[in-house]
């Protein structure tokens, strides 16, 4: 098997072998409702363009993930909600996803990349659109600042399809774990939907609890 991602020592708490996608409230649907939709359809829709040149018509839409260590999920949950799904990094890379890069706004490399996206602003087949969605440009933009390096973001261009067996874990508040397990078991028995038999992780758990939950399946 071809190795897709470098190994991380289990004693390195700043590294994670996983990426996570959190749901949030949008289109009058709660974060919980959006999570149920994703899990039922086994698809994360790409609804927005990201990266350099995202304002241009040709810019493709992407799905965002984070490689933030699982004992620090609170940082994302505080901003987005308590529901999501996790995958191993290899799963994302095998589908042409990967970590984003940074070109600080006023650097020569950032300007060069912006110029290339301008030239291709109406040509969705230009190869620059294979790169630009994976390059953010942190900086000050008028009265607003754009600095999100702390999210340790990964992206996938286009909708992201998966099977229930591909999920490494689901992000669900601990007080709902039992009900969620019963819900998925019933969905399977009644042939109403997929059953996610992976571990459940609460985004506010500490490292010991996360590690214990994941080792139930991956000793």
TrEMBL record:
> Record's superkingdom?
Bacteria
Q: Which InterPro entries match?
A: AbiGi
The protein here is known as DUF4433 domain-containing protein
> From which organism does this entry originate?
Rhizobium leguminosarum
Which classification does the entry list for the species? Bacteria, Pseudomonadati, Pseudomonadota, Alphaproteobacteria, Hyphomicrobiales
